[in-house]
Write a structure and sequence with these properties.
alpha/beta, Rossmann fold, seven-stranded parallel β-sheet, two-stranded parallel ribbon, 12 helices, 41% helix, disordered N terminus
C-alpha cells in the first residue's frame, strides 16, 4: 500500500521528520517514504550520517535528540517517525539507555508537539514485554512486566508508555512493535549471527527448537505507513511476518544465504540462564565495570519462545505482510555482500 493511495483512516503526510535515519530501519523507511512521494527530513548525528540520508533522498538535519533547534527543524512537518534508539542489550548500561531511549523520546516528542506535528509513530519493540520467561502469542493487551529482562526492555517500555501517554487530539502518538527485524541491508541481526558462526562462538540454545516471530524490514515499513495512515492515538501495534517459525529452522536458512552452516553444538538453557543472572548481578555490584558473557536481556531475547499476534494490526490498520519469508530469504541469497 502506498501513502498516496486512499485510505479510510486518514491522509498521507506531505512532509515527515525521521530520527535514526541512517540506521537499518531508518534507511529502509527513507527508501519507502521517498518512493511514496513523502518529503523526509532526517536527523543525522554525524557527517557520515548526513551523507547516508542525503544519498537516500532525504533532507538531512545535523543534530541529536536533545538539539534545541529540533522544533525549528520540524517546522512544516505533519508527521514524525521516531526510530532512533540505543539498542545495547548488555548489563550495566541503564543510565545511558534511560537518557537516550526515555529522555531522548521525551525531548523529540516535546519538540514535535511544539512544531505542530499532528501524527507520530514510535518504533518500539516486543522487548517491552520481556522478563525472561517465554512470551507466547502475546497481544497488545499483555501487561508490561514487573521485572523487565534488562535495561533495554526497561527503557523501551518507559519510552513507549511516556509516548502513548502524550497522545492527545491534534497530536496523536502510536507505537509499532516489531520482533526480530531482518532482511536485505541488515547491519544488526544477520551480521551478528554470521560473525558468531565464523568465530566458532555459535551454539544452539537447547537445540534451538523454540518458536519466534520475525519481521522483514519491508513489512515493518508497511506497518509504519499504515499506522501513520490508520492508527489510533495512544495505541500500540505488533507488526510481524505473520505466523511464527522455529528459530533453528529460520536461523539456518538465514545463515545459508551467506554461505554459512551453523554447527550442531548446543548448550543447556538452564546453564545460560544462570550465567546471565550472575553476569547481571556482577554488573550491578560493580557499577558496570564487570560484565559477564551473557546478560538477562540477551537471554530473554534469544533463548526462549517469543511470539506475538498481529490480529490487531490486521483489523485496525488493514495490515498484511508485503514480503514473505521465502521472498526475503531469496533476496538475501542474491544480495551483494555489505
Amino acid at each position: 500500500m502506498s501513502f498516496n493511495e486512499p485510505a479510510a483512516g486518514g491522509r498521507a503526510p506531505a512532509r515527515l521528520f525521521l530520527t535514526g535515519g541512517s540506521g537499518y530501519v531508518g534507511r529502509n523507511l527513507i527508501r519507502r517514504l521517498v518512493a511514496d512521494g513523502v518529503q523526509v527530513v532526517a536527523l543525522a548525528r554525524s557527517t557520515a550520517a548526513v551523507e547516508t540520508v542525503r544519498d537516500l533522498g532525504a533532507e538531512p538535519f545535523e543534530g541529536d535528540l536533545f538539539d534545541p533547534r529540533l522544533t525549528q527543524a520540524m517546522a512544516g512537518c505533519d508527521a514524525l517517525v521516531h526510530a532512533a534508539a540505543d539498542t545495547d542489550h548488555g548489563a550495566g548500561v541503564e543510565a545511558r539507555l534511560a537518557r537516550i531511549n526515555v529522555e531522548g523520546t521525551r525531548a523529540v516528542l516535546v519538540a514535535a508537539r511544539a512544531a505542530g506535528v499532528s501524527r507520530t509513530v514510535l518504533i518500539s519493540t516486543e522487548s517491552v514485554l520481556l522478563d525472561g520467561a517465554p512470551l507466547v502469542g502475546a497481544t497488545e493487551g499483555h501487561p508490561y512486566p514487573r521485572r523487565p529482562a534488562g535495561a533495554y526492555s526497561k527503557s523501551k517500555a518507559q519510552a513507549e508508555r511516556l509516548a502513548l501517554a502524550m497522545s492527545e487530539p491534534g497530536f496523536e502518538v502510536m507505537a509499532v512493535r516489531p520482533r526480530f527485524v531482518w532482511g536485505r541491508d541488515d547491519t544488526t541481526a544477520l551480521p551478528q549471527l554470521a560473525d558468531a558462526v565464523r568465530s566458532g562462538a555459535f551454539a544452539w540454545i537447547d537445540g534451538g527448537r523454540y518458536r519466534t516471530s520475525t519481521t522483514h524490514v519491508a513489512n515493518l515499513c508497511e506497518g509504519v505507513v499504515l499506522t501513520l495512515r490508520n492508527g489510533a492515538g495512544g495505541q500500540a501495534y505488533f507488526i510481524t511476518d505473520g505466523e511464527p517459525v522455529e528459530f533453528r529452522a529460520f536461523a539456518t536458512r538465514l545463515l545459508a544465504t551467506q554461505g554459512l552452516t551453523a554447527p550442531d553444538k548446543t548448550v543447556p538453557r538452564g546453564l545460560l540462564k544462570t550465567i546471565a543472572g550472575v553476569g547481571d548481578a556482577l554488573a550491578a555490584i560493580s557499577g558496570g565495570r564487570i560484565k559477564g558473557p551473557l546478560s538477562r536481556q540477551v537471554y530473554a531475547t534469544s533463548a526462549v519462545e517469543v511470539t506475538v499476534s498481529i490480529a490487531k494490526a490486521r483489523a485496525a490498520l488493514g495490515y498484511a505482510p508485503v514480503v514473505s519469508r521465502e521472498q526475503g530469504l531469496a533476496e538475501l541469497a542474491f544480495a551483494p555482500p555489505p
